[in-house]
């Protein structure tokens, strides 16, 4: 296994909007393994109306980029079953936590069950431990000392006017990675502010 790079985001459109250029550079080198982890189902509050389309859309975008078909399987991390897709050197993890449940887990400590009823996260720490289990699988396999994790800057001064799901994701990444990973914190919607 060559180098590994991670993109951990709240929603499926976050890295294409705010960090797509580096993701493309990482994906274009077939010796890299590029791991995308989506901490929410992007939507998921409206039954099955939107989230399958979001997943299908991002999976098709990888296929458009690298021409490869994808396979999927379930894998267990920290006791939680997670859907994994492999598309050439691109590995994708969908937590499938509805966005409202993710926010309540973070802000009120409510348990969060996935849309597909596969598993329930009982605390933010549970989600942190699960993310770390995914990250560590690749870090250990690659033998990388401090691989790069690209995520959403949780610092509201450096990354103003972003949304709470992005900040919460950054804080979860910060807690899950400690000093074992290099972090590239990117700015969200403030990139569009010109005043
Ligand atoms: Zn977003």
Query: What is the beta-strand fraction?
Result: 15-25%
In angstroms, what is the radius of gyration?
A: 16 Å
CATH architecture assignment: 3-Layer(aba) Sandwich
Mean pLDDT: 94
Uncertain residue ranges? none
Q: Got a strand count?
A: 9
Percent of residues in helices = 25-40%
Structure characterization notes:
By secondary structure, this protein is an alpha/beta fold. The chain has one domain (about 5-190): Rossmann fold, CATH 3.40.50. The protein is built from 6 helices and 9 strands. It has helices spanning about 15-20, 20-30, 50-65, 100-110, 125-140, 165-175; strands spanning about 5-10, 35-40, 70-75, 80-85, 90-95, 110-115, 120, 150, 180-185. A 7-stranded mixed β-sheet has the order 3-4-5-2-1-8-9, sandwiched between helices. A two-stranded antiparallel sheet has the order 6-7. Helix 5 (about 125-140) packs across helix 6. The longest helix is centred in the C-terminal third of the chain and has 19 residues, at about 125-140. The chain is globular and about 40 Å long. The termini are far apart. Bound molecules: zinc ion. Zinc ion binds near residues 10, 11 and 166.
């Amino acid at each position: 296994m060559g180098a590994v790079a991670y993109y951990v985001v709240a929603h499926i459109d976050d890295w294409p909007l705010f960090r797509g250029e580096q993701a493309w550079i990482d994906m274009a080198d077939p010796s890299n393994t590029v791991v995308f982890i989506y901490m929410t189902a992007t939507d998921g509050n409206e039954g099955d109306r939107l989230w399958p389309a979001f997943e299908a859309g991002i999976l098709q975008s990888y296929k458009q980029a690298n021409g490869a078909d994808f396979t999927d399987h379930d894998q267990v991390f920290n006791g939680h079953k997670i859907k994994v897709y492999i598309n050439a050197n691109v590995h994708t993890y969908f937590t499938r936590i509805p966005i409202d449940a993710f926010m309540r887990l973070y802000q009120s400590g409510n348990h969060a069950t996935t849309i597909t009823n596969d598993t329930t996260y009982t605390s933010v720490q549970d989600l942190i431990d699960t993310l770390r289990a995914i990250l560590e699988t690749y870090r250990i396999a690659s033998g990388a000392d401090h691989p790069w994790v690209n995520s959403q800057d949780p610092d509201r001064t450096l990354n103003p006017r972003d949304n709470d799901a992005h900040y919460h994701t950054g804080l979860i990444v910060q807690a899950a990675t400690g000093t074992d990973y290099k972090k590239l914190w990117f700015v969200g919607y403030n990139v569009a502010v010109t005043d």
